[in-house]
Amino acid sequence: MSSDVPRLSRTERLILELLADEEKFGLQLVEDSDGALKRGTVYVTLGRMQEKGLVASRTEAQAPGAIGLPRRLYKPTAHGLRVLHAWHAAARAFARRPRPQEA
């Protein structure tokens, strides 16, 4: 069964929340997550999120003579922010919904 409603994993939601105010490097996301994100999975998740159109990235400008690969900065796309806001709205709606009586 196919759906037009985007899926958002717990990790993807956390990344979007961490990126909501400013663009960040992958390792900044790991540090800011208080242990919820791991170095080994953050870049895989960011790549998947970029394919889904949830985040965009750009390469940091390197200083002249810098050694090594340039770092990538990530930020949420307009689509990513809409998905995050929709997720929060749904979570609030379900939190207000009365729970069925247990038998």
Question: Can you tell me about this structure?
Answer:
By secondary structure, the chain is mainly alpha-helical. It has one domain: Winged helix-like DNA-binding domain superfamily/Winged helix DNA-binding domain (Arc Repressor Mutant, subunit A, Orthogonal Bundle), CATH 1.10.10.10. 49% of the residues lie in helices and 12% in strands. It has four helices and three strands, in the order αβααββα. Strands 1-3-2 form a three-stranded antiparallel beta sheet. Helix 2 (26-32) packs across helix 3. The longest helix has 19 residues, at 78-96.
Features:
103 residues; mainly alpha; Arc Repressor Mutant, subunit A; 4 helices; elongated
- How many discrete structural domains? 1
Shape: elongated
Number of DSSP helical runs: 4
Could you name the ranges where pLDDT drops below 50 across 5 or more consecutive residues? none
Query: What is the H level of CATH, i.e. the homologous superfamily?
Result: Winged helix-like DNA-binding domain superfamily/Winged helix DNA-binding domain
Q: pLDDT average, as an integer?
A: 88
- CATH-assigned fold name: Arc Repressor Mutant, subunit A
How many strands appear in the DSSP assignment? 3
Portion in beta strands: 5-15%
Q: For this structure, what is the CATH class?
A: Mainly Alpha
Estimated helix fraction: 40-55%
Task: Name the strands of the widest sheet in spatial order.
Answer: 1-3-2
Structural class computed from helices and strand pairing: mainly alpha
